[in-house]
């Protein structure tokens, strides 16, 4: 997996401002940040430690009336946080997103200048490292990226009919099961054996 793969598959920027900052775990800081950016106070029941429940973000997004610049920006920030919690930096629950990303969204004009691609692939490698432990049975992280990469680089695993290239390539996964349902019923052991039997020339 390379940065080029991330750029092609997800269409993310792979150069730009570093995605970094200080992680604050206090609820007071989280509440103040949400009030500043969304003009809505967060309740303790709407978060799980340092994680904001995605249900709160989705409900807020649905309630926003897009009648001005500020409300549109808040709507976009809600959508970005939802993407962070589900596609780019999701945890195993898939139900929350860490609020450490919120400060990076303060300056709306700078959001698109961050190196989200590098942060995403770093998060994936960290997740893969954890999943390799013998006592781990699950994996989190940007699995859409991983699956799309495997679909491109290991075509013998899933011989799904190829379409003309479109960007981002992750769109290829949309509704793919409607065309070829048989892959939905293959077991994990089946794919593990295919990887174990990988031959030279089968990796693109």
Automatic annotation (TrEMBL):
<dbReference type="InterPro" id="IPR044824">
    <property type="entry name" value="MAIN-like"/>
</dbReference>
<dbReference type="GO" id="GO:0010073">
    <property type="term" value="P:meristem maintenance"/>
</dbReference>
<dbReference type="Pfam" id="PF10536">
    <property type="entry name" value="PMD"/>
</dbReference>
<feature type="domain" description="Aminotransferase-like plant mobile">
    <location>
        <begin position="2"/>
        <end position="203"/>
    </location>
</feature>
<dbReference type="InterPro" id="IPR019557">
    <property type="entry name" value="AminoTfrase-like_pln_mobile"/>
</dbReference>
<protein>
    <submittedName>
        <fullName>Protein MAIN-LIKE 1-like</fullName>
    </submittedName>
</protein>
